[in-house]
Write a structure and sequence with these properties.
single chain; mainly alpha; 8 helices
Length: 182
Amino acid sequence: MAKEVIAVSSTEREHLALPFPAIKDLFMMIDRRLAFAEQVAQHKWNAFKPIVDQEREENMLSSIPDKIAHTSKLRPEFVQRFFQAQFDASASIQKNHHAQWQEERLQHHARIPFALEHDLEKCIRPQLDALTNDLITALDKAMPLLEQKESREQIRKWVLDHGNRSEYLALFEQDTDVPRRD
């Protein structure tokens, strides 16, 4: 059995100030998923693989309608855009790491591979997949708050005051007036 990797975000403490538990849970899930970005980047660095795995992302996005069909009334397009924002945020983190490592490589005239503790396919990806399902559940629970103008504005202000993070703002850049199916 694969050993579980614990990835915890340094911003989880900040989420305690959120007045909405469902939103706090959603943001913590986003951060937990993004906390794996460095480990994923290390695997890709060692394997000389590109940051963006277009096929994996497309497969995941195309599976959204099936994933949410029986568990929520969220519109697939809304959830797909939400996850695309998560992929983009992770890719940005990974690109920053690769740029830093490339700079270090140039300084040391060597590309030093990482000693990896956990296998990407057997350990990390399954946890990311589980977090995807947890994120869908958290998004569904948070949606009533995102549909209310007053709470939406309070949450948006909190996001802007706490780093203006794109993976959070994705919730506000979409049409959430009608995020659910009939």
